[in-house]
Design a protein that fits this description.
alpha/beta, globular, binds flavin-adenine dinucleotide
Amino acid sequence: MSANERNDVGIVIVGGGQAAGWAAKTLRDQGYAGRLSIVSDEPYDFYERPPLSKDVLLSDSHSPPFCALFPESTVQALQLCWYRPQRAVQLDINTQQILLDSGEWLPFTQLLLATGARPHWPDPSWQQHPQVLSLRSWEDAQRLRQQLKRCRSLALLGGGWIGLEIAAAARQLGLSVSLFERAERLCSRSAAVEVSQYLARLQQQHGVTLHTGCQTLRLDLSQAQPRIRTPQTETEAFDLLLVGTGVELNLELARQAGLAIRQGVVVDGQGRSSHPAVFAAGDIAEHPQLGVCLQSWAYAQNQAITTARAMLDAQASPYDEPAWLWSDQYDVNIQLLGLPAPDLQCVQRHSIDSSLFFYLNEQQQLVHMVACNDGRAIKLGKRWLQSGRVLDAAQLSDPDCVLMSLR
Ligand SMILES: Cc1cc2nc3c(=O)[nH]c(=O)nc-3n(C[C@H](O)[C@H](O)[C@H](O)COP(=O)(O)OP(=O)(O)OC[C@H]3O[C@@H](n4cnc5c(N)ncnc54)[C@H](O)[C@@H]3O)c2cc1C
């Protein structure tokens, strides 16, 4: 490659989701004026996924508004070289090039992998059945929305956050909903027992039939209506079946290039992978301190912003935010801060319209917190968690003690 050709080489971002969008915008905001290429296998501008399992499903409108990350004019102003819909299929880390499915090689000075995740299908053949769906993309949401309008009964496989949000949307649309979860409780990977119990009560109060501990669940897809058999239930027929059994991270490029991977791509606080010219952001990037892949809107945005800054400035501040994610189910906004861990003391505080769950370590410091319909408490909790403040369990649980007074 000649020097002139090199001038045309710039930063390449693979992925067209939330992390990619925020990284692209931050690079420009921070003054990067070089070539900025985006390779995305979806045909759209950057968009957000949280509305796909909430507002988009519930929208009365014939065509619900697209959940674009930025206004069109903002995206235009970024002056991006779009490669879409195109897939990056190979990463040659030695020559710093990426191969697209069109056959074109795209050279890069720096690369950001923001490839996100795809739904996990316990059996790929299930995808062939027209009444069996999953939810990740805008197109998935349109398909699901149309089906929910036509159907009367929905079976959900998987009691994680997305499954619970779809259950809530389906109940609000008048469908009968049965949920089948392999574990003994809901959201068992990201929520503690007390919170799982709260979620189960919430869903049952709204009429969802829950089946937990479904280790040996069998699907019969030989007829138009999918059927589910567990040791506890006879074969049941449903109009629609949604598979919400977690995700597979899109790690193929990173794996093939030999980047360090544990749960996801191992990155430092600046989003840098084990290769100095390759960065990772969003769902595929392991949280640099927590060592887990969070799959959270806030992480996809803020870790991508930190990473983009560091791509231009090696002295940029590292990412050090605690885990934070939210879910909306019925009229309840649920926010989770930090991660659950064994042997924590659970302190609960309930009022007519909110519920709080505080998880304290032996030193009485906050490690994890869940707030249902109380976003202000989460803001306070974030300060307590980051400062390592010693708390008083009796005060936390006392409904007459004003939390703000503990500031
Ligand atoms: C339905 C739904 C609801 C959610 N709700 C919430 C919520 O309420 N709260 C919350 O905190 N989080 C929520 N999340 C999680 C949050 O949306 C994700 O963590 C976030 O979207 C991750 O952003 P990302 O950019 O890493 O990945 P993505 O948004 O998945 O974007 C990755 C993009 O890269 C593309 N791509 C992948 N491989 C290639 C390739 N080889 N070549 C080209 N393009 C490629 C993908 O098609 C995709 O467009 C939800 C997620 C979903 C799916």
